[in-house]
From TrEMBL:
Keyword Transmembrane helix tagged: yes
Protein name, entry field: Major facilitator superfamily transporter
Major facilitator superfamily (MFS) profile domain: residues covered: 48-492
Transmembrane residue ranges: 52-72, 92-112, 119-137, 149-170, 177-196, 208-229, 290-309, 329-348, 369-389, 395-419, 431-451, 463-483
Family annotation (PANTHER family): MAJOR FACILITATOR SUPERFAMILY, TRANSPORTER, PUTATIVE-RELATED
Extent of the signal sequence: none
Gene Ontology molecular function: any one: transmembrane transporter activity
Provenance organism: Paraphaeosphaeria minitans
Keywords: Membrane, Transmembrane, Transmembrane helix
Coiled coil, from the record: none
Keyword Membrane annotated: yes
GO CC entries: plasma membrane
GO biological process, one term: export across plasma membrane
SUPFAM superfamilies, per database record: MFS general substrate transporter (SSF103473)
Length: 508
């Protein structure tokens, strides 16, 4: 009799389950299948190259869906002229896609929990891919309105799935590098959309731009189908359990009917999953200070990123530096390069975190995740004021672009640090905290562009950007509070306190 049987624990690996069934062929006590230590079916035991490929592929989908979102700004003037609509209505086409980002994850997250990551990726990305076609062929503005929202809804799948995919593939304290790439995809994607789309829209027209997106998203859908497997542990265990059950049934073993996958008794049905996904994020948003801080900061920063889609043409376009559409797209290079520069310094943050974990006897220290964010937060108002007061047409155009690169670096550092903090602080409840944060982030991201033009025209380029800088100053204390007082806040949280390690302390 195995040690597990002596303890009355029937959580068995596949090999242990067969051994137990053969030793007790008439026993019908339920057996729960779990992974063995070196189980090849466990995504965390797959070859390193394969895990990184899947993580990087999923992260790149974030970039592509942002291209689909923001690229339309490069063709906004042509759409206005062709359909005879106002600037506000073309801005609405950007806002609707980002609004789809906000709504989509609420529905797609429980589907991912129930059916697995792969079906959600495959189906939703196919919808995104196919809905570039009616936009490219749109006979009127109304068609674009409907199709943009549906495309944004489907395009929210990577926002829902990528974090979960990385969690499937890497242990919490081993995911620093891949999470850094994920952070780049989230912050590089929106500004690079204009860099990618500017000259296509200028030289070929806005319809060719969407034909290009149709081709790119279609190509990646084929790669997705062919190269990205299911990574969700519960779905893989479910298939493993079915295989074991069939084999035991062939051998006539009595326990075959009572073979189950681990945690099968705790599984929620679709109704339960939707109930949690629709209620718990709001519970976190209105009762958890950490989630409130994260949502406020993320919402503001993403709002600014999409607001710049409308304000940069005012600074660099005909009323400013007189850039054409292609050159206006290239003006976003600063915003796009900033996260790449900050990524190069991420090893410093990871080294600090590792040191704090070692000092803390191997226990996680969530507060150490925001060590660098304290200084990244300072870059944001500095860059906004720099951008504001160098946006005169008499100042060389490279100067405000350099300022925007500092902003890009700041948002990368802050967003990645705070999202990592949420995951470490809430652990099994992190999906709800992230869902609430992402919901606010995308609602604000969709709303900010709607008033950008009016604000910049009324206040002027300098004072409009300065106003944003003053708001950014108000948010600077957030990472400092999380770093120095986060442990105390988590201790008072009914959700985060469940994961406090006994030896955990405040980082220094």
């Amino acid at each position: 009799m195995s040690e597990l049987e002596k303890q009355g624990n029937f959580d068995f690996t596949e090999e242990e389950a067969f051994a137990h069934a053969h030793n007790h062929p008439e026993d019908t006590t339920p057996i729960y299948i779990v992974y063995s230590a070196d189980d090849r079916d466990n995504p965390r035991n797959w070859p390193t190259w394969r895990r990184y490929y899947i993580g990087l592929f999923a992260s790149w989908l974030n970039v592509l869906t942002c291209w689909c979102a923001g690229g339309i700004s490069s063709g906004a003037g042509q759409i206005q002229e062709e359909f005879g609509v106002s600037q506000e209505l073309t801005t609405l086409l950007l806002a609707l896609y980002v609004l789809g980002f906000a709504v989509g994850p609420v529905v797609l997250a429980p589907l991912s929990e129930n059916f697995g990551r792969r079906p959600v990726y495959v189906v939703s990305w196919f919808v995104l891919f196919m809905f570039q076609l009616p936009i490219a062929l749109a006979p009127n503005y109304g068609t674009m309105v409907v199709c943009r929202f549906i495309a944004g809804f489907a395009g929210g799948a990577p926002l829902t799935n990528t974090g979960g995919t990385i969690s499937d593939l890497f242990k919490r304290d081993e995911n620093g590098i891949i999470m850094a790439f994920y952070g780049v995809s989230s912050t590089f994607g929106p500004p690079s959309a204009l860099v990618f789309s500017g000259y296509i829209a200028k030289n070929e027209g806005w319809r060719i731009l969407f034909w290009t997106l149709f081709a790119i998203t279609g190509g990646f859908w084929v790669l997705l189908v062919l190269t990205v497997p299911e990574t969700r542990h519960s779905k893989i265990l479910e298939k493993k359990t079915q295989r074991v059950r069939r084999q035991m049934a062939k051998e006539g073993l009595a326990v075959a009917k009572n073979i189950r996958e681990a945690d099968s008794d705790e599984k929620k049905g679709m109704a339960g999953l939707f109930k949690v996904s629709l209620t718990r994020p709001f519970t976190f948003l209105f009762t958890e200070p950490i989630t409130m801080f994260a949502a406020a900061y993320n919402g503001f920063l993403y709002g600014l990123v999409y607001l710049f889609n409308e304000s940069f043409p005012l600074v660099f376009g005909p009323g400013g530096h007189n850039f054409n559409t292609g050159e206006q797209g290239l003006s976003f290079l600063g915003l796009a390069i900033g996260p790449l520069i900050a990524f190069c310094f991420y090893p410093l943050q990871e080294r600090y975190y590792r040191r704090r974990v070692i000092e803390n006897y191997g226990n996680g220290v969530p507060e150490a995740r925001v060590w660098m964010a304290r200084y990244g937060a300072l870059l944001i108002p500095i860059s906004l004021f720099w951008f504001a007061w160098t946006s005169y047409s008499s100042v060389h155009w490279i100067v405000p672009i350099i300022a925007s690169s500092l902003f890009g670096a700041g948002i990368y550092i802050v967003i990645l640090s705070i999202l990592n903090y949420l995951v470490d602080a809430y652990q099994v409840y992190s999906a709800s905290a992230l869902a609430g944060t992402i919901l606010v982030r995308n609602l604000v991201g969709g709303g900010f562009p709607m008033f950008a033009t009016q604000m910049y025209k009324k206040l002027g380029n300098e004072w409009a950007s300065s106003l944003l800088g003053f708001i950014a100053i108000l948010l600077v204390p957030i990472p400092w509070i999380l770093f120095y007082r986060g442990y105390v806040i988590r201790k008072r949280s009914p959700w985060a306190s469940k994961h406090l390690d006994q030896d955990e302390d405040v980082p220094h």
